[in-house]
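Here is the promised in-class demo. Please do not try to memorize the tokens; focus on the logic of going from shape to residues.
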């Protein structure tokens, strides 16, 4: 009797074990879906490393961005690929170094699409993993194939490179066409008032910033003296499309509403939203609610405005009960600039604020402030709050998010650094090629090598040092964050080592 009982109980135990094993297996399923969180890129335009209080700003307060920074991973060595917008956006979306693409330079509003429709992109890769995909905000990667007719569907564009839904501005807030485009169609266009755009010649009888200063509510400083829209002189000429023209002061609220609506509509299944804010790029047009609030003029005011919309957006994720299932990546496309072509008091009212956070250079520069930007990952309940000094680049999101979501896709340039992005490892890249105006430099560990280049060392119009010199420059960022001590002449070994590494990586 006893042995049988023993046998039986063993059987029961085995059964129980196998059941519990099965249960464990079953439990894997929901765990798997947990690796498909919603993914949101919140991408700012020209926001400097030092422009957020989480990174040490004391003259301006960005509580909503800080909440992400202090509740997630705050990277102290996070990089955009480039010191201007178009190449950085190319890099973050394709996982390919933009200097490999000769067209990845600041584009006019009439430029053709520079991402091949054959190219893998973050949204395409995520779509294959079952994601819904959308962009809201600034595009600036070109549209169409040249000679766009803005009165018909404009294509190819974001919808042809992986975004199922798009609500965008074509280029920049200071460039025509000054209209929103939904899935290729100009939003609110009256067919009886067709749009014409040119970056070469004005349309007869149309006022310009250059000839009609009496019509301006904002003064231009350099460039920006073509067509006037809402009293603001722009780059490029535009005629018609009156009803479709955007309202600059409402732009932040407008994009926010689009982003919120998207989230509410798509929350049942995983989505990827690329939410590309226009601030604090020029023209800086804070909504009246924010005017004067920073004491720093419009540049400070639009940073407060951006922080506010980010707060509202996160509230939406919270009220829709998906914040804990959403990985947020917040960064900026390039470093800061004060006067970028309009007299808007950015210089005069700066006070003690340091947009670069003490880094050298700024937008357009090969010095660190050109590409070293705010970089935050946040995933409530999954990412433990931490500060990371791993060197990470927006380029690396492609392979890392592929890994997270179970895709085997990767690109040669994009490193799989998921553990760094989730705050589980301090291990970032060893080497990173940085780009400004299609000139490149190398960050390697704590070191930066800037090869010699022809050209002016300073862009006088924006008053930024570009990092250009006809000699090699070598800096140790750990000891010399501000790049004040060029060690090229005193550390020949390091110079040789980095020069070799740089040429190898650049393939020349
Ligand atoms: C420059 C513009 C600048 C800005 C920049 C693009 C002039 C003189 N300057 O050419 O104002 O629009 O392009 O900025 O036109 S970015 O952040 O989109 O790269
Ligand atoms: Ca930019």
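The designed amino acids, position by position:
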């Amino acid at each position: 009797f006893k042995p049988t009982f023993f046998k039986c109980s063993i059987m029961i135990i085995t059964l129980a074990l196998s059941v519990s094993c099965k249960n464990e297996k079953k439990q894997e399923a929901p765990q798997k879906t947990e690796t498909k969180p919603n993914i949101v890129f919140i991408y700012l335009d020209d926001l400097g490393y030092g422009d957020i209080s989480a990174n040490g700003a004391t003259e301006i307060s960005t509580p909503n961005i800080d909440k992400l920074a202090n509740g997630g991973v705050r990277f102290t060595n996070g990089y955009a690929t480039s010191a201007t917008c178009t190449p950085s956006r190319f890099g973050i979306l394709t996982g390919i170094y933009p200097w490999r693409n000769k067209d990845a330079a600041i584009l006019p509003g009439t430029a053709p699409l520079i991402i091949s429709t054959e190219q893998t992109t973050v949204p395409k890769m995520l779509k294959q993993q079952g994601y819904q995909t959308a962009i809201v905000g600034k595009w600036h990667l070109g549209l169409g194939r040249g000679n766009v007719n803005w009165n018909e569907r404009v294509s190819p564009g974001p919808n042809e490179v992986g975004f199922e839904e798009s609500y965008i501005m074509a280029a920049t807030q200071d460039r025509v066409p000054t209209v929103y485009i939904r899935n290729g169609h100009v939003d609110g266009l009256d067919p009886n008032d067709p749009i014409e755009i040119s970056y070469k010649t004005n349309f007869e009888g149309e006022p310009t910033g250059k000839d009609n200063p009496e019509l301006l509510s904002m003064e231009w400083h350099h460039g920006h003296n073509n067509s006037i829209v809402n009293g603001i002189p722009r780059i490029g000429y535009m005629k018609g499309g009156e009803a479709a023209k955007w309202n600059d002061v409402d732009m932040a609220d407008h994009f926010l509403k689009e982003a919120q609506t998207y989230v509410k509509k798509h929350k049942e299944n995983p989505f990827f939203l690329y939410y590309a804010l226009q601030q604090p790029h020029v023209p800086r047009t804070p909504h009246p609610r924010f005017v004067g609030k920073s004491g720093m003029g419009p540049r400070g005011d639009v940073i407060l405005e951006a922080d506010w919309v980010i707060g509202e957006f996160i509230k939406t994720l919270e009220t829709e009960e998906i914040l804990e299932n959403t990985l947020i990546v917040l960064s900026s496309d390039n470093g800061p600039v004060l006067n970028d072509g309009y007299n808007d008091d950015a210089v005069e009212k700066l006070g003690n604020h340091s947009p670069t956070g003490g880094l050298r250079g700024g937008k357009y520069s090969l010095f660190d402030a050109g590409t070293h930007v705010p970089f935050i990952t946040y995933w409530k309940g999954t990412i433990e709050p931490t500060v990371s000094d791993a060197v990470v680049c927006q380029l690396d999101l492609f392979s890392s998010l592929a890994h997270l979501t179970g895709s085997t896709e990767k690109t040669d340039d994009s490193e799989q650094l998921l553990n760094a992005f989730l705050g589980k490892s301090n291990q970032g890249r060893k080497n990173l090629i940085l780009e400004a105006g299609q000139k490149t430099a190398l960050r390697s560990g704590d070191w930066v090598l800037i090869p010699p280049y022809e050209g002016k060392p300073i862009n006088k119009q924006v008053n930024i040092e570009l990092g250009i010199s006809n000699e090699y420059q070598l800096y140790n960022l750990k000891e010399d964050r501000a790049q004040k001590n060029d060690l090229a002449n005193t550390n020949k070994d390091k110079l040789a080592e980095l020069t070799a590494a740089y040429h190898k990586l650049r393939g020349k």
